[in-house]
Amino acid sequence: MRAIVLLVLLVLLCAVVAGPTAATPEVTFNREIVPLLQQHCQECHRAGGGAPFVLERYEHVYQRRDKILESVEKRHMPPWKAVSGYGDLLGERRLSDAEIATVARWVAGGAPEGAPGDRPAPRKFANAAGIAAPDVVLRPEQSFTVPARGGDLYRCFSVQTSFDEDRYFSAADVVPGNSKIVHHVLAMVDREGHSAHIPSRDGLPGYPCFGGPGFRIDGYLGGWAPGARPWILPEGVAMLLPKGARVVFQLHYHNPRLTAETDRTELRLRAAPGPVQRRLRFMRVGQFQLRIPAGEPRHAIEAGLVVGRPMRIIAIHPHMHLLGREMKVWAKASDDSVTPLIYIDDWDFNWQGFYFYRTPVALPVGSWIELTAAWDNSAANPRNPNKPPRNVYWGERTVDEMGHAAILYTFEDETADQPR
Ligand code: HEC
């Protein structure tokens, strides 16, 4: 009798286990996984794409299948820090729930390769150079070597320009010199040349800079992080590089390797093709005095500013340091209608960049741009650089904090003969 019960149970169990596999077709690498990797991963996980390994050949993907599944289920990959649906952002990277389920089924089914005939042709990626024939190329005077096992290193390089007039550029493309170690790059304008006087302190090219370049910047000229595209501004809009200005490159290097690696990153600029109607401007919304008490698990702030001239927001760049946890920015019109701009609910200092809007966001006079941000200064925060926690103040060093969003925008009422 007992044997029969056991047998029945066993049969039932087999039916349950076999059930779904029998009903749903097998997922194979060649048929389902390759297209998914091509669409969502290979932009970075290919040679020169900026990610630490390539996801192209079956053996390599098979080896990493568990990590791959974990990274997509937790939505760590593809990296995209902005909360989906909050702000109409360009180039959102996101797997659908169905795509995640496909990866899960592939791994659960033993991660088979499938028939060679099912495999699509390799995806072709445009050359690293987004701007084919740049009018101007700027780069640091010397290359920089990041030592073996250098971990994270933040370095600024100040470059003197020598144009005899103000220059306007409509597109910018930062091209990392060594994609194995460059994690992100910002190119900034230093009109007065203050950066020339910041000491290197170690005799190496450039100077150390973690959360900021060490002077008040006069604008941005481009940026890069893995997967980033060139900055192409709307027609008639251009970035100003004033005569005699310096351009400062802020580089975040990451070198966990056993060998030293050398980089010389460059900035390619395309001159504005026609008359410049609107200059790309920037402003910051946030707080520039902070005191985040030691041990405080959620220190929150609010900030805002009123729009005094009709404007259009083109891009946004949230900025906090290691203790940052969340930031939300929105615009409120005088009739109380709200336009979401960006929401990051799991801040990661390693994944910051400029987010461009699919269509520039028009804000009439009288609108408010509002921002909330929060930090975790408790001992439970694994990213807390102070052990035990200390009071943290506003500043640019690793142990300081910042809390603002830089906003790239144009004024609607600006005219061609008076773009400044
Ligand atoms: C925008 C560039 C980019 C895209 C797109 C991208 N990755 Fe990554 N990935 C990286 C970088 C850079 C790292 C190194 C770790 C880091 O810097 O966060 C990484 C690390 C990883 C890791 C190891 C770390 C971890 O989280 O376990 C896995 C696995 C991974 N990626 C899988 C994928 C998969 C699968 C996709 C597509 C669904 C994908 N990635 C898309 C840039 C990218």
Distance between the termini: 92 Å
The count of domains is 3
How many strand segments? 23
Q: Report on the biggest sheet.
A: 6 strands, mixed
Unreliable runs: 4-22
Strand content: 25-35%
Q: What is the rounded Rg? A: 25 Å
- For this structure, what is the CATH class of the largest domain? Mainly Beta
Q: Into which percent range does the helicity of residues fall?
A: 10-25%
**Which fold does the CATH topology of the largest domain refer to?**
Jelly Rolls
Supply the CATH superfamily name of the largest domain.
Copper type II, ascorbate-dependent monooxygenase, N-terminal domain
- The ordered H/E elements are HHHHHEEEEEEEEEEEEEEEEEEEEEEE
Which descriptors apply to this entry?
single chain, 420 residues, alpha+beta, Jelly Rolls, 3 domains, 6-stranded mixed sheet, 5-stranded antiparallel sheet, 23 strands, binds heme C
Walkthrough of the structure:
This protein is an alpha+beta fold. It has 3 domains: 20-118, no CATH class; 136-276, Jelly Rolls (Sandwich); 281-411, Jelly Rolls (Sandwich), CATH 2.60.120. Helix content is 15%, strand content 33%. It contains 5 helices and 23 strands. It has helices at residues 2-23, 29-40, 58-63, 65-73, 97-108, and strands at residues 136-138, 144-146, 151-160, 167-175, 182-190, 207-208, 220-224, 231-232, 237-241, 246-255, 261-263, 266-271, 278-279, 281-287, 291-292, 299-306, 311-320, 324-332, 338-344, 355-363, 368-375, 392-393, 403-411. Strands 1, 4, 8, 9, 12 and 13 form a 6-stranded mixed β-sheet that branches. The model is unreliable at 4-22 (pLDDT under 50).
